[in-house]
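Structure in, sequence out. Go:
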């Protein structure tokens, strides 16, 4: 196992100190952006819900966005913890002597990534119901249902991550590294299964919503005028935008997660190589870019969350009454109660 540290000069270093320092700076910048962006979103949502009377219709999508922001915030914090053992030899040496802290680092980062991925699946389910079963949205996606779904997400994340506490290869004579501590049969297999499962579910919902968007466009062309034409344009527009969002999310997830999943499998089931370890480090850096898109795709593009964010800066105070009247007017006229749960892409 090759460890590239910033605080210890190594004669057999492959990359060189300046390359490692550059990679560490990039990792630090990404982690800071992930933590600051998601911490701000959590603050904005909680502040807005505490001071404002938000509509029940939009509270479901806001609740999912809050859960995703919390999980991504945990991803940023756990990644900082994990990378400290990659770039500072003094940290990895200390963790090698402290069994709980070493194992907790892997449990924390696995739980955070799992919670973020599972929340994306829940949001895809919510958007699927909002588009395909719009007339039954209030019935199917109630406040109680959304809370149960979020609880299931975090319970499943804990079930996936906590086995590392009692199923591990930790030894005081070995350094605290995932390839040595986490069992070979656990991390690569779990990563591949989770990757395929999430892509299958989100991709399936994307295809179904895309088909519904095409069908809605056909129905819109057959409408002539009047209120039905207005409803057709609204439903078609939101279905199309939702399909675009899911396509964007699926593409980002595949691009960012596939390389590290493949390298993780190679690391687990092939002979250890310093070159493979270096490729893994770069893939891990590339993976974290995925979590920079989540605040934009799931928070800023959510009208209710965007309002909460702008309200922090006092931007939408002067337009508050006008915006609420417009939303209420559209909600009364449209037969699609899920409009506020479908994110805009414009």
């Amino acid at each position: 196992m090759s460890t590239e540290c910033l605080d210890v000069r190594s004669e057999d270093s492959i990359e060189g100190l300046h390359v490692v320092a550059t990679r560490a700076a990039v990792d630090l910048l990404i982690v800071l952006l992930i933590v600051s962006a998601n911490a701000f979103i959590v603050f904005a949502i909680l502040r807005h819900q505490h001071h404002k009377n938000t509509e029940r219709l939009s509270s479901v999508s806001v609740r999912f966005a809050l859960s995703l922001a919390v999980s991504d915030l945990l991803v940023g914090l756990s990644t900082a913890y994990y990378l400290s053992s990659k770039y500072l030899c003094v940290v990895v040496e200390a963790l090698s002597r402290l069994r709980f802290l070493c194992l907790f680092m892997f449990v924390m980062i696995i739980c955070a990534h799992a919670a973020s991925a599972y929340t994306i699946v829940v949001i895809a389910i919510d958007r699927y119901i909002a588009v395909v079963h719009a007339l039954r949205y209030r019935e199917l996606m109630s406040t109680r249902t959304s809370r149960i779904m979020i609880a299931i997400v975090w319970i499943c994340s804990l079930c996936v991550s906590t086995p590392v506490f009692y199923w591990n290869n930790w030894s005081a004579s070995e350094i605290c590294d995932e390839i040595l501590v986490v069992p070979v049969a656990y991390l690569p297999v779990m990563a591949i299964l989770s990757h395929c499962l999430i892509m299958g579910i989100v991709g399936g919902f994307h295809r179904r919503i895309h088909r519904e968007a095409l069908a809605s466009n056909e129905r819109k062309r057959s409408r002539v005028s009047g209120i039905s034409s207005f409803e057709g344009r609204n439903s078609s527009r939101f279905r199309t935008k939702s399909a675009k969002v899911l396509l964007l999310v699926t593409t980002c997830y595949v691009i960012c997660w596939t390389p590290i999943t493949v390298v993780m499998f190679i690391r687990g089931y092939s002979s250890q190589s310093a070159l493979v370890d270096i490729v893994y480090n770069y893939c891990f850096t590339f993976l974290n870019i995925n979590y920079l898109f989540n605040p934009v795709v799931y928070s800023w593009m959510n009208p209710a969350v965007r309002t909460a964010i702008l309200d922090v800066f006092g931007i939408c105070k002067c337009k508050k009454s006008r915006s609420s009247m417009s939303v209420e007017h559209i909600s009364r006229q449209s037969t699609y109660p899920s409009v506020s749960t479908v994110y805009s892409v414009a």
